[in-house]
Specification:
The protein is an alpha/beta fold. Helix content is 37%, strand content 18%. The chain contains twelve helices and eleven strands. The chain has a six-stranded mixed sheet with strand order 2-1-3-10-4-11, sandwiched between helices. Strand 1, helix 1 and strand 2 form a beta-alpha-beta unit.
């Protein structure tokens, strides 16, 4: 279970890097376990939901975070000063709409309860699914649920469908749930990134560089020798070691060179950014258009500042 960092409790001054327990975000936690982070550098904090992560960033309780790109755009729209410094993963099937046994076709979702996190990525996935099924938002009943608890909501009967992600997708499939839609049908919409507060660019450049280098170092270790780190990843992801490969199913994990290509002008992520911002506005996820032209900062991908 994720640690409660007391966001609603007494004021606290701890700052650091934050994320929920998700496979694509796990390499910085792995880097900490492997001793790849600078001693005395930025601390890693695990939170319950991406909504909590955004709130902590806004309050200055975090300096950097792993978020989906659409959530970064939402934060930017709300006045949160952020820069994207690296792509952590690209969803290519890892995010899915799962249904209980018996709901075998997308159109059967009409009138049903859908467990979905109250975040931009949840709304985007649900919107794409409903569009593919020929349904309207008011054709389903939403059950707002933190992402790590969406699978439990489906299993318990609290919901008929769940907008969820790996490793919960594979767990639900093994239990007989039906995959009705996944991110392969919405290419490029769900990208996870490392975002930092802009005030950190000037005040803590070494910490940013250290985070980026640590991520790529841990990723390289996983890609070259996964057996050596599977137990550590299992502990962080709260799954059995044998289930770790499933946690990464449907995720592209871009290394440094792939990051440079994705975030460079004309790259797949950089090129799709204006369209994603427009999509958020069209779907009512942000109230007004947002200018994301200066959101990406690629200098950290070359190890410089």
């Amino acid at each position: 279970m994720a640690r409660d960092l007391g966001l609603a409790g007494r004021p606290w001054r701890l700052s650091g890097w934050g994320a929920i327990p998700f496979a694509g975000y796990s390499f910085l936690f792995l880097a900490e376990d492997l001793g790849l982070l600078q001693p005395g550098g930025i601390r890693l904090q695990e939170l319950r939901s991406n909504t909590d992560v955004l709130r902590a960033l806004a309050l200055g309780r975090l300096e950097a975070a792993a978020l989906t790109l659409d959530e970064v755009l939402t934060g930017l729209h709300d006045g949160l000063p952020l820069k994207v410094v690296a792509v952590l993963d690209v969803s290519a099937g890892a995010d899915a709409v799962m249904a209980r046994a018996g709901l075998s076709r997308p159109e059967m979702a009409r009138g049903k309860r859908v467990a979905v996190e109250g975040s931009a990525v949840g709304a985007l996935m649900l919107s794409a699914f409903l569009e593919s099924a020929g349904l309207r938002p008011d054709d389903v009943r939403l059950v707002t649920t933190p992402l790590p608890e969406t699978a439990a909501a489906l299993r318990s009967g609290a919901a008929d469908l769940a907008v969820t992600a790996e490793p919960w997708v594979s767990q639900l499939e093994a239990a007989g749930a039906v995959r009705l839609f996944d991110s392969q049908e919405a290419p490029g919409r769900i990208v996870d990134v490392l975002a930092v507060r802009t005030d950190m660019l000037a005040t803590r450049p070494d910490a940013i560089r250290g985070l980026v280098e640590a991520h790529f170092g841990a990723l390289a270790r996983f890609q070259s020798d996964p057996r050596s780190v599977v137990e550590r990843l299992a502990a962080h992801l709260q799954v059995d070691a044998q289930d770790v490969p499933a946690a990464f199913r449907g995720l592209e994990l871009p290394n440094r060179a792939a990051n440079q290509a994705l975030l460079a002008p004309g790259g797949r992520v950089a090129e799709g950014l204006p369209e994603l911002a427009a999509l958020l506005h069209r779907n009512g996820l942000i109230a007004s258009p947002v200018d994301a032209s200066a959101l990406i900062d690629v200098r950290w991908l070359w190890g410089g500042a």
